[in-house]
Amino acid sequence: MGPSDEQAWSNRWRHHHPGERGLLAGGLLLLVLLLPPLPTAPLVLVVMTTAVVVGAGVPLARFARALAIPLGFLATSLPIIALSLELSEGVHLSLSPDGARRALEVGARALAAMSCLVGLALTTPMTDLIAGLRRLGVPQPLVEIMDLMYRLLFVVVERATNARRAQEARLGYTTFARAPHAFGLLIGALLTRSLAHARRLEIGLAARGFEGDLQVLTPRRALSARRLAAVSATLIVVGGVALASLGMSS
Amino acid sequence: MRLSACNLVPSLAGEIRMHIMEGFLPPLHAAAWTAVSVPFLVFGARRIVRITREQPQLKLLLASAGAFAFVLSALKLPSVSGSCSHPTGTGLGAILFGPSVMAVLGAVVLLFQAVLLAHGGLTTLGANIVSMAIVGPWVAYGCFRLARPIGLGLAVFLAAMLGNLATYAVTTVQLALAFPDPTSGFAGALVKFGGIFALTQIPLAIIEGLVTVVVINLLIRISGDDLWQLGFGPRPCRVTEVTT
Hints:
heterodimer; A: 250 residues; mainly alpha; 74% helix; B: mainly alpha; Arp2/3 complex 21 kDa subunit ARPC3; 9 helices; 2 strands; ECF_CbiQ (chain A)
């Protein structure tokens, strides 16, 4: 999916402290998981969409497209949850109002949670998230590996796209029998080239006196008290409204 | 540059992707699967920290392998049924890198997929790690070691196919545990989820097995030293025999 990475580097919140977005997305995610989905999920979905579209200036269409990615998963699993299977007296499927309600709740919760993930992904570049992981105690070598992986990813994607196009131009996937073979060749070529690339990087680094640590500069960004207060207030309001509507209905 | 480069990420209708999506599992289940995955991650991470301290240049190799694994899982598998699917790569990864390193590498790939591709999720990361980065690779590795004496090709095929199937079996169990059927309970849910996914998954597992055999054969033919560097198998002589 392209939209997320490009957008993450160019949205309005790009120069804010990533912790603020982490708190917003993480807090809403926890709320929607822990509180009953029916009042909470639509609320979270609306709040997150508004924050990302109005606040960070992410186009609504992009947000919606990213949100729609797991629809295939929902479309196969929700009916399975809604339908109930009778095994004791012969096998038959039935649709109960209870099952339908449960499927609706799960679907709503998943979509709302998805909006938190997508909201974070569309506003925060991977490197900021990786720097956050380092603060959370992920060991330094792993953080370096992840940074490098992010850097190499785009090279491999381009290589894969070109190789696939070349194969298709030479009738690589035309028949059913040929397809797995062509696909295997593509993967093998990608792997050998990735390893060769790693070796070249290794030589380059060794030539410059690589001693084991890959230090990167993380831009210093101050947490804004105003924005933190706004995020906390949002979380409290969403939690409060969800609990209040729950109290009223019961 | 955009990751959506035409062919890599297909149109989403009819896509089979078994990452459990964000927010799909109830909170208790999400927390429990995360707890299950933690010891494997800590063990694998310690191992990576240790080997990269001894040989810092392995960081580049691991990062390269991780980027490769990420792209591999975004490639479209040749389709059988018209819907499109992706290789899990668990078999190939386990054969090449070993299952304990695969746990960490797989977890990182899953995190990248969640953030960059919106496949999977943060709260369901633990559950997805258990199925795709722990059980799948261990099953694949076990099959590979067991079947290796019979023949390399067969061992690779079985490892990749059964690793793929094990991944989906675990996901099915995870979903059935989270959403037991109201009348027939866990067993009924297992039949429902398993039934749907078995239909689509068994042919795909076989294709992944075949593809992985092609990959390993290719690697043996053109780059035996890569395999040797990755610690593939105890006897490199076979490899040099073919390449010289």
